[in-house]
From TrEMBL:
Keywords assigned: Oxidoreductase
PANTHER family given in the database record: DEHYDROGENASES, SHORT CHAIN, SCP2 DOMAIN-CONTAINING PROTEIN
Source organism per UniProt: Bradyrhizobium algeriense
Record flagged with keyword Oxidoreductase: yes
Name under which the protein is recorded: NAD(P)-dependent dehydrogenase (Short-subunit alcohol dehydrogenase family)
Keyword Oxidoreductase belongs to the record: yes
Family membership noted in the UniProt record: Belongs to the short-chain dehydrogenases/reductases (SDR) family.
Superkingdom of the organism of origin: Bacteria
TM region(s), chain numbering: none
Length: 293
């Protein structure tokens, strides 16, 4: 008996890397899987549904159920197509993992409008396009689980990834609102911040310098299975970071107790006077928060 028996899962960007690992693990745990992938290189150019079909073939060879979808998830039509393939082939849409993404790294001073638009469109708009039809179906059919993929680049920051970090930070914000709106419909929302060695990340400095410390896709997948299965109970609105150096940990925004000024008559200098109530001290940070290195 599998953890996902009777469930139907949609996974975007599942023709390789993390998405492929999720798809194969979910299928082994009993889920029918819609494997979406546009195909092509990591910059998002080109299209080749054979990447998705290869994963589908591997799942079927192991006795699982899966169907390939080659739609561009950064469009409304593409997101609708992925959802419709789930309904047409399997009759349900219990799980959605928004995993598809591209990389077009450049420092902010050298940023090109075209690259900015492409990264935001695939990551942030793509998450919207795929989530909306699934969210609506879940709202009318008893709920489900949606996992949105953010990144420490968006939650904390990373040099040379302004477009990517902005998109991933936006996904985190989207997830926060979806968790609030979906709660009464039993729609659970997770945000994942993975750190894995894949073709998307292989030439990033932190992985090139210490590849032995990086998790592969199979090292991330169990955490996603936990999120979408009954193992995670009724948890929603949480961010889970998963990586080799840092392990599995919840990530949260921290907020100080604060100082309440009078409605009128206070000055900028008062912030200096009440700094200990407004700002975290270095000691506070050392005790209660860790930064990704």
């Amino acid at each position: 008996m599998g953890l996902l028996d009777g469930k139907v899962a949609i996974i975007t960007g599942a023709g390789g890397g993390l998405g492929e690992a999720y798809a194969k693990l979910f299928a082994r745990e009993g889920a029918a899987v819609v494997v979406n992938d546009l195909g092509g290189p990591r910059d998002g150019s080109g299209a080749d549904v054979s990447m998705a079909q290869k994963v589908v073939n591997a799942i079927k060879e192991e006795g699982g159920r899966a169907v390939a979808n080659g739609s561009d998830i950064s469009t409304i039509a593409g997101g609708q197509s992925v959802f419709e393939d789930a309904i047409k082939n399997f009759g349900r849409a219990d799980i959605l993992v928004n995993n598809a993404g591209i990389l077009l790294d450049e420092t902010f001073a050298k940023a090109k409008e075209a690259n900015w638009d492409r990264v935001i469109k695939v990551h942030l708009k793509g998450t919207f396009c795929c989530t909306q039809p699934v969210f609506k179906w879940m709202r009318e059919n008893g709920g489900g689980v949606i996992v949105n993929t953010s990144s420490t680049s968006g939650l904390i920051g990373n040099f040379g990834q302004t477009n990517y970090g902005a998109a991933k930070g936006g996904i985190w914000g989207l997830s926060n609102v979806l968790a609030i709106e979906g709660r009464k419909y039993n729609i659970r929302i997770w945000t994942l911040a993975p750190g894995a060695l894949t073709r998307m990340t292989a030439d990033l400095p932190r992985y090139k310098e210490n590849p032995g410390a990086a998790l592969g896709p199979d090292g991330i997948a169990p955490a996603v299975l936990y999120m979408v299965s009954d193992l995670s109970g009724d948890q929603t609105g949480k961010v889970l970071g998963v990586s080799g150096p840092r392990g599995v940990r919840e990530m949260r925004m921290m907020e100080m107790e604060g100082w309440t000024p009078p409605f009128t008559g206070w000055k900028a200098e008062d912030i200096v006077t009440h700094a200990k109530d407004i700002f975290f001290s270095e000691e506070d940070i050392k005790k209660s928060a860790r930064r990704f290195k």
